[in-house]
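Quick note —
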Amino acid sequence: MPTVLFACLRGSDMVAQWTKVGIIAGGGALPLRLIQACEEGGKAWHLIRLEGYTDHYLADLRGDDCGIAAPGKVISILKENSCDAVVMAGIVRRPDFSRLRPDWRGVSLLPKVVAAARQGDGALLNVLVETFEREGFNVLGAEDVASPLKAPFGPLGAYAPTDGDLCDIKKASQLVEAIGPFDVGQGAVVRNGFVLAVEAAEGTDAMLKRCAALPDEVKGFDPGEATRPRGVLLKRPKPDQERRVDLPTIGVETIKGAVAAGLAGVAVEGEGALIIDRAAVIAEADAAGLFVYGARREDLSVS
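Predicted structure written out below.
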């Protein structure tokens, strides 16, 4: 099933003031990082755990549990707890709609949700964002709550991409640009101009495992250089994507996957992606000799 990472990213000048944020949590580390950022910044928060999706470390935190098909309950809880903003954070796999048991609000939204789902995950997430906005909530991005999550421009660690790596980044960007209208993934792996993989429903980690399993001749290794790391994973938003949801995200596991796949580095669009635990990501990459790079506009241009 397709995987969606809830996260929003907008310029700070576009974000209205807020006093308390409702954190709607899926799986992964992002929800906890947002809670920690709120605590450190003195911001009020309320946690809503999506049943069947959140990880165990959120179980003992104050908050409420809601089913993914119960938007009416979610909205009521947010209002009861005086939330004026909401952020959706974490990994959520698309549900089997035939098995859902929606609440009254979910029933009213279901036809629109199903229709949007046929168009792709982007359209589906837009329905959720519009629903919260109609209820008067300010939909925040993850970086609005925790600004260090936003990927910067340029090299992040001790290593930088070579000219050859930059060519691979540009080709990977061209791939994402081309397949974006089909609502496919946001990532691609290219080595010496040879396309190793395009991200689809399986997600980044599984894509990298596919790359690692490819025989050397398929990977395009030159004779005698089979052990030399080459190739780049690029993650960037799809073209014309509403950059309020489902932004590309990398973390330590991404770096480990790139190492196992024999890649030279990982690139993301600068200020167009999230990096979970940046210091740990840089340390992991430096130890392995990989670059982590926030690509600039000219690095991604396909013209």
